[in-house]
Design goal:
With about 280 residues, this protein is an alpha+beta fold. The protein folds into two domains: about 170 residues, Trna Endonuclease, Chain: A, domain 1, CATH 3.40.1350; about 70 residues, Arc Repressor Mutant, subunit A (Orthogonal Bundle). It is built from nine helices and ten strands. Strands 1-4-5-6-7-10-9-8 form an eight-stranded mixed beta sheet, with helices on both faces. It has a two-stranded antiparallel ribbon with strand order 2-3. It is globular and about 60 Å long. It starts with a helix and ends with a helix.
């Protein structure tokens, strides 16, 4: 049994090494984008980012894997005048909320003033860009993929930013991320995503909603209608649970049971079918 574990660890190390070597031997993500005619104007702005000091980044990344913690952070960002624990105890027990609050105090993201807490960094307006940073980190840390977040291009007819872009074995992966629940996502959001996909022509595209709710109720019907009005052909089909695909390269997914797990599922699905 111990020998099997050792062999498995050796295999993981070798695969990680081979992927790093592949990244070194193939063009950078910026070069791949330039070949498509995309010149980066702006990326990875930290202005609206909620992150601790570098020494706490690893633990913060691990905490961000928890859905309840991400929901808690969204609530905290909304409390611009300060908050008590009861104000942010909608998605977890009071004990868990107290644990999260103590953690943010320890890493310097919160300060306590009398009986209220507030964010150390002022002016934050949303959780969106912090979630984009996290997804980019998932691709880097879990899958050894070069990636960048909150990317804007110069001179494109299609506006808006690309939430996350990554290098996928010599190709390009585009991830659109929604931190809002499905009820706050509209058909225009789907249309904008498909226009950016058409303009960039990535090898793989993901529309990720950070929710544990069903995609079939609202998001999938929006996509079905939008696809009819787009250049894309085919029908959406379910891979498993709330993971859906169009022609094996465009994917819709939620974050249940985990973001990293669902990304792993669609990555392996795409790569295995590309070889057939």
């Amino acid at each position: 049994m111990h020998e099997d574990i050792k062999n498995n660890d050796d295999l993981k190390f070798q695969l990680s090494y081979l992927r790093r070597r592949l990244n070194e031997l193939t063009p950078s993500l910026e070069v791949l984008l330039k070949r498509r005619g995309f010149t980066i104007f702006k990326k990875e702005s930290i202005e609206n980012l909620l992150l601790p000091e570098d020494r706490f980044i690893d633990s913060f990344y691990e905490m961000m894997k928890r859905y309840a913690f991400r929901l808690y952070l969204r609530d905290v960002i909304k409390q611009r005048e300060g908050f008590g624990l009861k104000d942010v105890t909608r998605y977890a027990t009071s004990e868990v909320t107290a644990e999260y609050t103590e953690y943010l105090l320890q890493i310097g993201l919160l300060v306590k003033e009398r009986k209220k807490y507030r964010l150390q960094k002022e002016g934050l307006i949303s959780f969106g860009e912090t979630l984009e940073w996290f997804i980019s980190e998932v691709l880097k840390r879990e899958f050894q993929m070069e990636s960048m977040w909150n990317v804007r291009f110069r001179g494109r007819s299609v506006g808006g930013d690309y939430d996350v872009l990554a290098k996928l074995d010599g190709g390009i992966l585009y991830v659109e991320i929604k931190s809002s629940p499905p009820r706050q996502i509209y058909d225009r959001d789907i249309d904008a995503f498909l226009r950016r996909v058409e303009d960039l022509c990535p090898d793989m595209a993901i529309f990720l909603v950070d929710t544990h709710l069903r995609m079939k109720d609202k998001i999938v019907p929006f996509f079905e209608d939008a696809i009819k009005e787009s250049i894309f052909e085919g029908e959406l089909y379910r891979i498993k649970a709330e993971l859906f695909s169009l022609r094996d390269w465009l994917f819709i997914l939620n974050s249940k049971p985990s973001i990293e797990g669902n990304i792993s599922s669609v990555l392996s699905y795409y790569l295995r079918r590309r070889c057939k």
